Amino acid sequence: MESIAVWQGATLGGIVAWILISSYLNVTRKLRSFLQPWVAHHVIAGTPLIFQIQKYQHWFFDALFSGLSCVVSVPFYTAFLPLLFWSGHGRLARQMTLLMAFCDYLGNTIKDMVSAPRPSSPPVRRITATKDEENNALEYGLPSSHTLNTVCLSGYLLHYVLSYIQYEDVSMKFVGLALVCLFVGLIGLGRIYLGMHSLIDIIGGLGIGLVILAFWLTVHEHVDNFIVSGQNVTSFWAALSILLFFAYPTPELPTPSFENHTAFNGVAFGIVSGIQQTYHQFHHEAVARIFTPQLTISNFVGRMLVGIPTILLVKSCSKALAKWILPGVSNTLGVPIKSTNYIPTLNGNGKKSDESKQSGYIQRLFFSQQGSFDVDTGIRFIQYAGLAWSVVDLVPSLFSHLSL
């Protein structure tokens, strides 16, 4: 118990020290002044390559690469991961959820720290087939989040499958690795074809993704053991989530990146707190898994029909509850608050100002120039934490009562 408290305190203390030191030394601005011109030069220099790839413009490639981008997007994983939990593969689901949150935070941190541009459009042809892609286009370029996430999540999935099935055949491992490499290559090529990224962004996403994957494969068992059987798990993760908000760098201009991180930060907290409470009931290694007599396809379909509406309802209720509670708590504590999206009455004229149209950086997100707290961060965090908690706690309880 004492050793656990020591490493938890050291972890949180280290983050606090980094926040103070980086703020005092203005680390973000110094790193940006060094990296941004170099990256911007390579973005411009890589424009002819984008033109060369886009010469092969065709409706089939438009549909193919747009579809692949949707398959590896954050909204897709947000929808896919609950199904993975309900399929009985709880260990894989929680590891991929936390890895996704880790990738999302580090990727967006680097994006906003460097604040490097995407390829200029025009002259580059940019295809944004979905609302999510339109939001992605508002973010900075380096690294490519799609490439980074694909490297990490497909690489970890391959590791899990090979470990779970215990393949000893080297040829099968080679085939699996080749498929992952092909998938990653198509994603990277597609991001350039769609005009969303330059080659330097893809290389950056690939390199950073490989580093994160190697690190995660080293620590994932320790992380999982801590979540399912550790001490002070929920309180530690709550403190970690709050500190990560303040450790986030200030971008050169506002972007949606911080909003995305806030959502997945909430998801990670909801998953961790829910698993900690219900591991031995619903998420241990002996639970029924899909494609077995204990969990047939029809039962799994029933789980989806019950689970998906339930988590969407919980998300909506969590958001409404947060919008009601947080302003009252802030007023009781005498903390001035503002809202850029969720509570228009907290803005002076009920409209978004040009300056606060996008929340994505810590100073304006938490404290505006008038010293007011942007309550949207707390609301977004709570609504996604509630959604994630329902995935691993409330919904499995319903499955148990309904014999699903």
UniProtKB/TrEMBL annotation:
Pfam families: PAP2 (PF01569). One of its GO terms (molecular function) is sphingosine-1-phosphate phosphatase activity. Keywords: Endoplasmic reticulum, Hydrolase, Membrane, Transmembrane, Transmembrane helix. It is found in: Endoplasmic reticulum membrane. The chain crosses the membrane at residues 6-27, 34-51, 63-86, 174-193, 199-219, 226-248. The keyword Transmembrane helix applies. GO terms for cellular component: endoplasmic reticulum membrane. It is a multi-pass membrane protein. InterPro entries: PAP2/HPO, PAP2/HPO_sf. Gene3D superfamilies: Phosphatidic acid phosphatase type 2/haloperoxidase. Residues 93-217 form the Phosphatidic acid phosphatase type 2/haloperoxidase domain. Belongs to the type 2 lipid phosphate phosphatase family. This is Lipid phosphate phosphatase delta.
